[in-house]
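testing teh design pipeline on a random one, pls ignore if ur not involved
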């Protein structure tokens, strides 16, 4: 936890290059809650250094950043490009509930943690999911889910379900020594479910991953308890709607974060237990669920504990993080 008490780590990203205060293979982790444990109110990114096993503060962003609609509450949407720029999404709240949430934004930071640019637009409404990224150095493409459209307060019993969440593609120019520029925004998926939730703030599509040949984008639909795929994600100029269902239910229990393993299988964290599920993307076969968090304080064990997931640089294991501000490595 940083000195200001921010907690509840959400995004998790292994750094591809050394730049500024960041070293290659460091792990960037952002927080979603403030010291009072209010969701959508954190503004800090910390840096874990695997070589020394130490932590440092990478960035502390002003909570009332005026260019960001609703302010700052850092979400699971975070990446760092080869050019050294860090991009993080904001899904902000004034009081820890979706009743006061704003549309949020993307914040572009230089590799020393300083704000370089803020992006907001009508297509950006609560960047929620971990990004899928194609990084070509001088250009890059980001895919991220937007879970805020239509979602309001969670005081209803149950709160209403909105099928307005989208998957947005951002095509970027990355000129030398300048903050990147968005060339084009394209909604390539829509109609995914999203719902306010008192316990976890918001349930919506989170995990995104590209196939090895980049011809498919895999999208985890948490509300539908399923994995879908979108054809031709890099080139399509229209929405594929909710995509094509690849697999559903079975070992999945509100699938959350997702990453591609070296064998090109997909690893998916469950939000409703402490398991990570391995899936063969070509067939949709669910191979196995491994308990990563067995904390019996929750029922079932690990319920609500696992958030982000990222492969180690060597590809021999993966990082996850849990609800007690702990970074875990599994092999």
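output:
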């Amino acid at each position: 936890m940083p000195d200001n008490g921010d907690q509840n780590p959400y995004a998790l990203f292994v750094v591809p290059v050394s730049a500024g205060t960041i070293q290659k293979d460091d792990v960037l982790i952002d927080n979603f809650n403030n010291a009072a444990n209010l969701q959508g109110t954190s503004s800090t990114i910390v840096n874990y250094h695997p070589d020394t096993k130490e932590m440092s503060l990478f960035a502390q962003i002003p909570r009332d950043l005026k260019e960001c609609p609703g302010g700052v509450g850092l979400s699971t949407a975070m990446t760092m490009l080869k050019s050294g720029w860090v991009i993080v999404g904001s899904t902000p709240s004034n009081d820890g509930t979706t009743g006061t949430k704003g549309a949020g934004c993307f914040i572009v930071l230089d590799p020393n943690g300083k704000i370089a640019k803020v992006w907001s637009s009508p297509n950006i409404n609560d960047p929620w999911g971990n990004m899928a990224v194609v990084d070509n150095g001088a250009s890059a493409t980001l895919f991220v889910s937007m879970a805020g459209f239509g979602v309001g307060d969670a005081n209803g019993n149950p709160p209403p379900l909105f099928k307005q969440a989208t998957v947005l593609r951002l095509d970027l120019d990355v000129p030398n020594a300048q903050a990147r520029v968005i060339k084009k925004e394209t909604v390539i998926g829509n109609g995914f479910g999203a719902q306010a939730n008192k316990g976890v703030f918001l349930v919506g599509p989170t995990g995104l991953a590209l196939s090895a040949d980049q011809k498919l984008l895999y999208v985890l639909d948490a509300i539908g308890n399923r994995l879908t795929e979108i054809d031709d994600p890099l080139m399509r100029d229209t929405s594929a709607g909710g995509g094509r269902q690849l697999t559903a239910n079975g070992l999945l229990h509100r699938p959350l974060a997702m990453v591609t393993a070296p064998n090109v299988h997909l690893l998916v964290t469950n939000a409703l237990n402490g398991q990570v599920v391995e899936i063969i993307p070509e067939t949709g076969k669910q191979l196995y669920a491994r308990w990563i968090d067995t904390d019996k304080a929750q029922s079932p064990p690990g319920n609500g504990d696992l958030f982000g997931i990222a492969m180690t640089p060597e590809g021999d294991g993966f990082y996850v993080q849990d609800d007690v501000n702990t970074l875990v490595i599994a092999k």
